[in-house]
Structure formats: structure tokens, C-alpha cells
Specification:
By secondary structure, the chain is of the alpha/beta class. The protein starts with a strand and ends with a helix. The chain has eleven helices and 14 strands. It has helices at 15-25, 41-50, 67-76, 92-101, 114-147, 166-171, 177-181, 192-205, 250-271, 290-295, 300-303; strands at 4-11, 31-38, 55-59, 61-62, 65-66, 83-87, 105-108, 151-155, 161-164, 207-216, 222-233, 239-248, 277-279, 285-288. Helix 2 (41-50) packs parallel to helix 3 (67-76). The strands form four sheets. A five-stranded parallel β-sheet has the order 2-1-3-6-7, with helices on both faces. Strands 9-8-12-11-10 form a five-stranded antiparallel β-sheet, sandwiched between helices. The protein has a two-stranded antiparallel sheet with strand order 4-5. The protein has three domains: 4-143, 3-Layer(aba) Sandwich (Rossmann fold); 148-251, 2-Layer Sandwich (Beta-Lactamase), CATH 3.30.450.20; 272-303, no CATH class.
Length: 304
């Protein structure tokens, strides 16, 4: 297997230190190291902008400039190359400042040897790969969140929306997620007692499944929905936020109404004392009342 290639940007204003660092980089094992050397913050930012580097080694003091200024500027420009800070002497202040700026590692020049430098490079590369994998994973989850044909939400324990997918925004008749986040879930419930009951179940069980209720859309239309939600708690047991799914059950509600209507009609039809028969346009008997069957002294099934 071919050795991996590690592309390194070295930002160092001292030629002697730059030569020494490059010499140590030649001793990195199982890799081909390609080094680009620049001496100023401006040159470093330009190199990061137009080039592709796996790691940047940045000196803390660059003449009158500060290597952490490069790190911060690169972050503001969304240049996500891992950064290792090199400094002439260590201090707690510089260490804290480097961490706050987003530096991946921090090495004191007088204590660097080939092994410690290689180890820092490997760690920085591994962290960068992990960050990249996390970003990709979050992107896939966000795509699923945005395109799933079910309403998804996250809200505070008091019902303030933190996030909602486009499906839920559309279901609730809101023009944008931003406008929805300015409202509380309680505003949408036709019957406030439904929300109170759901909160009680969440508080008691931590989860609610298939909770049926009616919501009022932005246009005033009443929408039948089924909600499944889970309460996420902190270490002390306090509910931090609630995540859930809202399903539009208009079609199912219509089917239920038709069936209920059919049942009521059948009950009335069967109690009629009149002789009634239903036929199609060709005269075929579709149904008869009990009175009709009795008059003809036939079983209703024999007449259909």
C-alpha cells in the first residue's frame, strides 16, 4: 500500500526554525510529507484560501503579528484546516488563548522532537477526520429531517419551538420556520385540555404515543393530528426539551366519519317499518329493508 501524503503549511518567520521544523517533518513515518513554507499571517491566509492542506503549523510570534490572529481569521473565513501552534516558550495564558481560538494542538519549540511532532500531526489529522465525519452525519440527518413527509419538531418544556421541519411548517399553515419559532405549541391546540393531558403523560412516562388531538392552522382550519413525542431529561432529571412527530390524519378521519355514518344509516335502515329496496340503474337489487323482506317472505340475502 502506498504511503499517505500529508500536505503541511508551515507559517514561520524565522528561517532557522523553519529549516529545523522541516527537517523533523522528513522523519514522519509511513507518509510522504509535502511542506509549503510562508512567513506572514497574510501569506498563510492566502495559502490556506487557495491551497489544500491537511495541517497547518503556525508560529505564535510572527514578527509584529500573532499566529492566533491567523487561526481566528481562518475560522471566520470557514477555512477548516487543523492548526497546531508552535511557540518559543509555554505559558498557561497562551495555552488557554490557543484553546479559545480553536487550535488543535500546542507545542513548545524547545521541547519538540520528531516523535512528538509526528504524534501531534496524527492526532490533528484524526480529529479533523472525526469532525468531517460528524459534519457529514449531521448533514444526512438534517436532510432526512427536512424531507421526511411527517411533521418533526423540537420544543422547550414550556412549548416554545426550537426547530421544525418544512412538513410541520406547512401542516400548521405558517410561512416559515422562523415565524413558527416565534410561537408556542399551546397556540395551535383547539382544545387546550389536550395539551395539558399530553404534558401530564410526558411528565409521568417520558413518552407519549399516538396522542390524537385537533390543531388550528394559521388559516383557521382545524386539523386532526396524531402526535408521538419524547421528553429528554438532563442529569438531574429535569426535562430539557421535547422531540416529536406530528402526523396528519385527515384522510383517516374522513374514513372514520364515513364508517360512522354508514353504521348510523344501517341502524336506522334496519329499524324502518317501511318496505324499502335499493336498486341500481339496471334494476338489480342492492339492498332491502327487513320490512320489505318480511312482506315477500324471503331472506334479505336471497333478494340481493
Amino acid at each position: 500500500m502506498d504511503p499517505e501524503t500529508i500536505r503541511i503549511l508551515l507559517v514561520e518567520d524565522d528561517p532557522t526554525d523553519a529549516t529545523f521544523t522541516q527537517a523533523m517533518l522528513t522523519r514522519v513515518r509511513d507518509a510522504v510529507v509535502e511542506v509549503t513554507w510562508v512567513a506572514t499571517v497574510a501569506e498563510g491566509l492566502e495559502a490556506l484560501r487557495i491551497g489544500r492542506f491537511d495541517v497547518a503549523l503556525v508560529d505564535y510570534l510572527l514578527g509584529r503579528e500573532n499566529g492566533l490572529d491567523l487561526v481566528r481569521s481562518a475560522s471566520e473565513m470557514d477555512l477548516n484546516t487543523p492548526m497546531i501552534l508552535l511557540t518559543g516558550k509555554g505559558s498557561r495564558e497562551v495555552d488557554f488563548e490557543a484553546q479559545a481560538a480553536g487550535v488543535d494542538d500546542y507545542l513548545v519549540k524547545g521541547r519538540i522532537d520528531p516523535d512528538s511532532l509526528e504524534r501531534a500531526l496524527r492526532y490533528a489529522l484524526e480529529r479533523a477526520r472525526n469532525r468531517s465525519a460528524l459534519v457529514e452525519s449531521e448533514g444526512r440527518l438534517r436532510a432526512l429531517f427536512d424531507h421526511l413527509p411527517l411533521g418533526l419538531f423540537r420544543c422547550t418544556p414550556t412549548g416554545e419551538f426550537l426547530d421544525a421541519n418544512p412538513t410541520l411548517v406547512d401542516l400548521l399553515g405558517n410561512p416559515s420556520p422562523e415565524l413558527l419559532r416565534s410561537r408556542y405549541a399551546a397556540h395551535f391546540y383547539v382544545h387546550p385540555s389536550d395539551l395539558d393531558r399530553m404534558k401530564q403523560v410526558l411528565q409521568r412516562d417520558g413518552v407519549v404515543r399516538g396522542f390524537e388531538s385537533w390543531l388550528e392552522r394559521g388559516d383557521g382550519f382545524h386539523l386532526p393530528v396524531r402526535t408521538t413525542a419524547r421528553a429528554h431529561r438532563g442529569a438531574d432529571g429535569t426535562v430539557m426539551y421535547v422531540e416529536g412527530v406530528v402526523e396528519d390524519v385527515r384522510e383517516q378521519e374522513s374514513v372514520h366519519r364515513i364508517r360512522r355514518g354508514q353504521s348510523r344509516f344501517r341502524a336506522v335502515f334496519d329499524q324502518l317499518g317501511l318496505d324499502v329496496a335499493f336498486t341500481d340503474i339496471e334494476g338489480r337489487v342492492l339492498d332491502v329493508s327487513p320490512g320489505f323482506a318480511r312482506r315477500w317472505r324471503r331472506d334479505p340475502a336471497d333478494l340481493v
